[in-house]
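Please fill in the sequence for the structure shown.

STRUCTURE ENCODING:
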């Protein structure tokens, strides 16, 4: 496909705003990119940057949620509801990321953030399938209240599936460590507040 002008044009020659969706996506990528950049710095050459990473993560989630909240103007009830479920997952990620600013080593908060970040990913796929590529080949009726209610139920399934995935990852990791002869893994705190692997405790059976 050929374009007569660059895709990321903000204002056309007549002074009209252009490519609002693309600019919204770029804004999200910018904040998450900044978060990732600071996270890399904090883990490598600038340890003091680590204290800012959770705040920037919370900011990135906040911007993402803000943009998606206003992304549904003029859409069908079904599409609005699909995006509302996404915004809910983003909001939970924002709350937990913000909580991590003060409770960096709280495992439960971290797991909730990881869970709903995973739910975001699976729900993005679900949203795309419903709106653009339904398996039946027939588009969902965007005005049907039953479709709206069904997507709510499906969202709860995504949360359950995410929990099962995390449980499987944890279980497989624990079994792998046990099979390798380790009963536990211990960490020590570094100067930047992070934790690094200190030692692995040999299994009592070895």
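FILLED IN BY: designer on duty
SEQUENCE:
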């Amino acid at each position: 496909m050929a374009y007569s002008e660059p895709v990321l044009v903000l204002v056309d020659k007549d002074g009209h705003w252009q490519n609002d969706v693309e600019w919204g996506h770029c804004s999200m990528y910018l904040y998450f990119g900044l978060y990732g950049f600071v996270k890399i710095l904090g883990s490598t050459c600038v340890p003091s940057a680590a204290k800012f990473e959770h705040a920037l993560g919370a900011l990135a989630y906040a911007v993402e949620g803000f943009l998606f909240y206003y992304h549904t103007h003029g859409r069908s009830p079904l599409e609005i509801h699909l995006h509302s479920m996404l915004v809910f997952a983003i909001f939970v990620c924002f709350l937990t990321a913000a909580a991590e600013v003060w409770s960096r080593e709280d495992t439960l908060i971290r797991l909730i953030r990881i869970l709903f970040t995973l739910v975001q990913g699976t729900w993005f796929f679900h949203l795309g399938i419903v709106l653009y590529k339904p398996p039946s080949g027939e588009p969902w009726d965007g005005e049907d209240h039953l479709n709206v209610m069904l997507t709510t139920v499906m969202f709860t399934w995504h949360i359950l599936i995410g929990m099962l995935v995390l449980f499987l990852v944890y279980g497989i990791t624990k079994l792998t460590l046990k099979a390798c002869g380790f009963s536990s893994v211990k960490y020590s705190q570094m100067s930047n507040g992070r934790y690094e692997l200190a030692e692995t405790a040999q299994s009592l059976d070895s």
